[in-house]
Each structure stands twice: as structure tokens, then as C-alpha cells.
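Review form for a predicted model. The reviewer records the input and the model, then writes brief findings.
Reviewer: anonymous (R2)
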Amino acid sequence: MPPQPQMQKKDFSEECLFFVSVAECDGILRLGFKEIVVGNATPIWYNLIRQGLVQEDIFSFWLNRDPQAIDGGEIVFGGVDKRHFKGQHTYALITQKGYWQFEMGEFLIGYQSTGFCEAGCAAIIDSRTSLIAGPTAIVTEINHAIGAEGIYVPYMPDVTFTIVDKHFTLTPKEYVLKTGEGIATVCLSGFLEIYSWGFITLYLTMGIYYADCELVDVEFMYVAK
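Model under review:
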């Protein structure tokens, strides 16, 4: 095997947040923009580009939704893995550097407009947040509309996010989380209220749609089944 490129002069800091502290955690690899980095550190992604260690200025995610699979997912620095997606790219321009933030259009429940994002909503793609997080008022209405108070998956509606005039749909099986087994199984809504959140975090979509990030845009593609 040929020698692998090595990154030079990179400082790392460890952090385990409350929502991941219940599991083993070695730290968080931050891939956001330098505008939100603490302590003026240079993000690892910037160093990879500056040192010429990647073929393209892209990193991409594939998250495996099969809990029995050996591979839980994959991150590719410098390109995409074509085994994990199909169809054409959908490009969403970055609207504000910090998180990977872009403009999201209308949000539909059961293919009917909710009106929540008629004028557009700020959304981010974030591999750190394990649910679809959003402002309390909006998420409360979403959970009521999908029947999250008494979850029964066969009767729940699809939900659809509009990104660059294209629809990205999640079925109830894709946005309802199951924990436990047998009679101990508990079903939870994948929509999480965060009081101070001013935008919608689309983590769960990353298990259904392949996502890759450039410094100017975020791209979404259908995950290959």
C-alpha cells in the first residue's frame, strides 16, 4: 500500500456534549466554518485543503440506518462514494457561514402545505445532532400534526422538506425512532424542540439522503437502496 498523506501541525480539542455523554465519546470532530470556531483554531477541513491532501474541496456523509450492519456509515474527505447514492445532485447555496446553513422552502405534512416555511426557513445540515431539531413553536405543531402523542406508524403521514424547489420526503418509518426490543420497544418522534434554535437541523435526512458539503454549497442526493 502506498504511503498515506499526513496532516501537519493540527491541534485537536476534545468535547463531549450532554446529548452524547450517555454513550462512549472520544470527542467531536468539528467540520463547520472557521467563523464559529472557538479560540481561533483552524478547522481540520481547512487544513486538509491548504495542505493539498484532498482531490476535491468536498467532504461527504453516508449514514447507515441499518442497526445490524457492521458499517455504521462513512465520511469521505475529498470526494463522494458513488456506491451510496443515486440520481442527480441538488445544490443548496450556503446562506451564512458558520454552520452549513441554507434556505429551505415549504414543509409539508401528508403532502399538504403547513405554511411554516412559506417565506423560507433557515436550515442546517449537521451530523452532530441526532434528530430533526427546530424552534419549539414549530416543532410542537409538527408533532401534533403527525400524531406524536400516541405514535402508531401505519397511520402517520409522510413529511416533506423542500430544498431548491425539490421535494425530499421522509416516511414515518424514517422519522420515527425505535428503542428497545419486544414489549420494551418505545417509539419516539424524530422531531425535537429546542427553545433557542432559530433554524431547522436536518440530521435524520442524512440517513435517507446522501449529503456532501463544499465551501459554497450543500448537495443532496438519494441514498442508493
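Findings: Confidence is low (pLDDT under 50) at residues 14-22.
Further findings: The radius of gyration is 18 Å.
Recommendation: see findings above.
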